[in-house]
Structure formats: structure tokens, C-alpha cells
Amino acid sequence: MSRPEDSREEERDARVPGGRPIFVIQKHDATTLHYDFRLEVDGVLKSWAIPRGPSTDPKERRLAIPTEDHPLDYADFEGIIPEGRYGAGAVMVWDRGAYQNLTRKDGQEVPVAGAIGRGHVSVWLEGEKVRGGYALTRFRTGKGEAWLLVKMDDAEAAPGRDLVATETRSVISGRTIEEIAAGRD
Ligand code: MN
């Protein structure tokens, strides 16, 4: 008989061959609509709220506000956070996939946790919608801590695209945020 921990491991292996770390972007229609960008780091989801979502244009900077770490299994959450609870509103799994750490210093890989601590991390995303290199850079520390998410200039850069406008459905259910909010299957 397998323990719950074992079955969770199997699910993760099924989702990402090789057990590589995952990222998820959840579209969240809370008080204000935003996209929660989460990276698996050392067993948790490091998280930023991005009001305008990711861009595919290297010239576009997207504000990213750090939010609390989430447990790894939250990456699959899609549905409704009830009224009265923090973040009340509909949540969609807008994109997800594996990622690779691109962060280097003096030619050496910098582990993601340390890179985030130092305020700069670069990752290669392998989502169904969002692909290629992205850099996250902290530009303000303290109470109003804030970061910028910028597409790196690589083969996946596509200045003319607007993923947030054109990609409106969940990668796990095919639903729009309105259908999720209405509780439709
Ligand atoms: Mn959120």
C-alpha cells in the first residue's frame, strides 16, 4: 500500500517527466485581476502577483509584487476562493510547465533560492503558452518590495503577441475565468 506522499510523487512525475521543477501562472480574478506567477523552489511555490501578466516583448516590463509562498500542491488549484477569505474570487490555471534555472554569476549557476534572495533570477519557462527566458529583478526593497518581470531576448521573444489578450482559457479545463466563476464544468 502506498502512502499519500508516494502517490503525490507519482502525480508530479507524471506531470513533469524527469521530476524537474515546475512553474505555474494562475489567473486570479480577486479585488483586481492579476496573474500569480509561481516557481517551485525547495519544495514550495515562490510567488509574485503580476497585474498585467507576462509579456513576450523584451521591451515590456511587468510589475511583479512578491506574495506569500504557497504549498506545491496549490499549483493544481483552479476554482473559487469563497467570499470572506483572502483572495476571494475565481482562480484559473492559466499556464504551467517545467522550468530551468538560467541564473549565472561568473559562469557558475546560482541556485534559485539564493538568486531570489539576492534579487535577481533568470529562468527558462516551458509552458503551454509562455516559453523562453524570463528575468525577474527586484527594484525596490522593504515594505513596498517590488520586482519586474521581463522577457529575455531569445528565440521565443515575440514583440507582436499579446498572450494575456489572446489566451483566455485554462490549460487544465479549457474554461474561461467567467466559466470558472460561474461554477461551470
Ligand atoms: Mn492572487
Overview of the structural elements:
This protein is an alpha+beta fold and about 180 residues long. The chain has one domain. The chain is about 15% helix and about 45% strand. The protein is built from four helices and eleven strands; from the N terminus they run αββββββββαβββαα. It has helices at about 5-15, 110-120, 165, 175-180; strands spanning about 20-30, 35-40, 45-50, 60-70, 80, 90-100, 105, 110, 120-125, 130-140, 145-150. The strands form two sheets. It has an eight-stranded antiparallel barrel. It has a two-stranded antiparallel ribbon with strand order 7-8. Strand 2 and strand 3 form a beta hairpin. It is globular and about 50 Å long. Mean pLDDT is about 90; it is low at about 1-15. The structure holds manganese (II) ion (MN).
